[in-house]
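Progress note, sequence design subtask.
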């Protein structure tokens, strides 16, 4: 270790550690990403506690999740430029420090506004961390082992939501919802130590100026889309605010398209979408993010609100599905190296979408073992999608465009997640009002929410069918 007390280049570290060094880099980035994912998945079990503590409805409390996801989505956009400008080591460590600071601030939050602000800053840090793993994977590993590398990267990230409901549920019952903010801090500190020791010094290279105008237009469009969905519930379709947010969305996207056509180094270059498989894959990523995040929000709330489980019991019930997810991903990663990633993605989307049908048709009579079986089957489908979707979407892209195209796919997935959580909270509140404040009405509202998730996955399957496989 004496040789590496100071920061060395990637070539020097590769020469010292050999071929295993790229795997070390991938694991360090994965460890930091776990800290960000924990901030995403652990907070869902706190929704009922926050409604009681701050005397708010679900449509207001969901802003703690929406603020995080919106900030995470927007923060992904400059990730590729930051990586080129400052290097992996600096960007990775700065994002981890920001995540730790926001987590500690959230632990001491006294008002719901402080909770939302802490979640927003957490989201910024997690958004920068999120695309780094797939960027490193696509640049460091040859195509014939990218599936296996993707499986190794994702298995740790997937294990996080597998155990997060159980641990966060126990922490909530024992220490209160504030303790959930600290769940990702130990992983962030471990990643910081490993990054300081093993990540390489940044290479000197010329980069284009950052596209601040493009970031502004895309951020405005993202906020317009999210607020338009929220405004449908509290204001109505033809209300001033709803139409205003719709106008903001349309105007911002129009301005960005005009801006990107005239700027060769736009934050998202439009020519990327000239490849049909990439365009379809981006849509599938959006729909997949919608279903994934909306279901991660909906299932714990359903178990606690409709079925009267405690936070701890709800977390324990979801533990078998998490284990199934972790066991599926390495196998699915190896399959993606040998078989068609597109077909694996289609199979995973079908299985994941079908798993919600149990709740659609038997929400009020579903048994404990049926919930366990449905969530296990759904997580098997999810485990098939995770390693294959990026490979199926990005195989057409040139090496110089991998960074930006990886960000686009991650951005689409996260934007789908933000819209999914927002729409599900709004949809559920609306259906509960329409179905009545009775036990039967509550179960009917949740059944319709799960039906919406199944429909979204059907749309994703239809689009994914038209994607093309990579030539091997």
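Output:
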């Amino acid at each position: 270790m004496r040789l590496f007390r100071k920061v060395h280049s990637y070539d020097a570290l590769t020469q010292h550690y050999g071929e295993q060094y790229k795997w070390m880099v991938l694991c360090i980035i994965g460890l930091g990403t776990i800290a960000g994912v924990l901030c995403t998945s652990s907070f869902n079990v706190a929704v009922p506690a926050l409604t009681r503590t701050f005397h708010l409805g679900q449509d207001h409390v969901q802003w703690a999740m929406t603020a995080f996801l919106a900030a995470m989505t927007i923060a992904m956009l400059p990730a590729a430029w930051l990586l080129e400008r400052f290097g992996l080591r600096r960007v990775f460590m700065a994002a981890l420090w920001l995540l730790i600071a926001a987590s500690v601030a959230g632990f001491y939050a006294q008002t719901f506004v402080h909770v939302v602000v802490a979640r927003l800053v957490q989201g910024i840090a997690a958004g920068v961390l999120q695309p780094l793993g797939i960027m490193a994977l696509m640049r460091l590993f040859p195509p014939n082992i990218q599936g296996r590398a993707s499986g190794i990267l994702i298995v740790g990230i997937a294990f996080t939501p597998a155990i997060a409901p159980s641990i966060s549920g126990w922490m909530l019952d024992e220490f209160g919802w504030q303790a959930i903010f600290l769940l990702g801090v130990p992983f962030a500190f471990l990643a910081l130590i490993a990054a300081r020791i093993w990540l390489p010094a940044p290479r000197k290279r010329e980069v284009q100026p950052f596209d601040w105008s493009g970031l502004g237009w895309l951020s405005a469009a993202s906020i317009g889309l999210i607020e338009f969905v929220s405004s449908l519930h509290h204001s109505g379709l033809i209300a001033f605010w709803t139409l205003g947010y719709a106008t903001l969305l349309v105007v911002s996207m129009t301005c960005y398209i005009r801006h990107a056509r005239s700027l060769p180094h736009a934050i998202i270059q439009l020519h990327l979408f000239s490849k049909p498989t990439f365009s379809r894959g981006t849509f599938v990523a959006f729909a997949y993010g919608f279903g994934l995040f909306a279901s991660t929000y909906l299932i714990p709330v359903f178990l606690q609100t409709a079925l009267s489980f405690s936070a701890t019991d709800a977390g324990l019930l979801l533990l078998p599905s998490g284990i199934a997810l972790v066991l599926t991903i390495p196998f699915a990663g190896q399959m993606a190296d040998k078989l068609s990633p597109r077909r694996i993605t289609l199979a995973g989307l079908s299985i994941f979408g079908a798993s919600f049908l149990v709740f659609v048709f038997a929400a009020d009579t579903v048994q404990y073992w049926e919930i366990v079986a449905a969530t296990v089957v759904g997580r098997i489908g999810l485990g098939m999608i995770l390693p294959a979707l990026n490979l199926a979407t990005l195989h057409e892209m040139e090496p110089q465009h991998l960074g930006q195209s990886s960000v686009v796919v991650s951005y689409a997935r996260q934007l789908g997640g933000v819209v999914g959580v927002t729409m599900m909270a709004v949809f559920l509140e609306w259906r509960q009002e329409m179905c009545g404040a009775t036990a039967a009405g509550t179960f009917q509202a949740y059944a319709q929410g799960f039906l919406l998730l199944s429909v979204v996955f059907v749309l994703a399957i239809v689009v994914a069918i038209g994607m093309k496989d990579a030539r091997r």
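The first helix runs from residue 10 to 17. Work on this subtask will continue into the next period as scheduled.
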